[in-house]
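One such given next:
>
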Amino acid sequence: MAHDHSHGTTNRKRLIVVIVLVSATLVAEVVGGIFTGSLALLADAGHMFSDLTGLIIALIAIGIAARPATDRHTWGFQRTEVLAALLNGLILTVVAVTVALEGIQRLIEPDPGQVDGLPVLLVALVGLVVNAISLALLRDGAQRSINMKGAYLEVFGDLLGSVLVAGAAIVIMTTGFVEADAIASLLIAAGILPRAGILLRDVWRVLNESTPVGTDVELIRDHVRAAPGVIDVHDVHVWSITSGASVFSAHVIVTQEVFAQGRVAGLLDELGSCLAEHFDVEHSTFQLEPATRTVSEDTTHA
């Protein structure tokens, strides 16, 4: 889907609401963790703090990405969203490792103090409700923007953390098994790492200018070859500036009649419309070449 700046405005407003909600929950978890002695609650608060940082970075990135293109930055600043997602992924990784180490330490050397289960449960339930609301607000934007996807995954991790903390609190209240708190911390860390990996993988695909997921290059070639007057296509490149902003370029060999009959403009319009309609590629560049031109392929060209 094409990059639409109107979505940036909507995403920005929703992010602001989510940031306010997460901030309030973070304060509640920190206070609750200190007074109840719950490592899981503090671990989830640490996770939420990293997510809050990521959400703020995402909000800043949306503002930067919306700036218009210039002669110095001809693509504008859309890739700022990708760099923000990279930073978010790294933050998530660091938090997961830190939480895991603290959880293991708590299991090796159990805290003699008892964890007060009821307050922990109440705070966890508040976090559960807030995170569910936040997910609903971010879901639409996560389908269009890698930056918003990062924010969505972070809040989803918070939701998972709230569920685990609530579960640990219930176990402690009903059985007295205080180690459930440390186990919940380890599970929170285990849930964070895969999400960080997914986000970093998507960032790598964009920065490496890989073909966008779901784009069939050979099918694009078939569509281009099917256009009247086209003989063949080579030097094909498909990549993304950011999520939802795919770019295409290719050299297209055409018959002499295309040039002789003045059909160049019409063919370019047809090819551009085809890519926009069938492959969600709004920015395409075609170099039309006569069949008599000697083609020298490069191994970096598809």
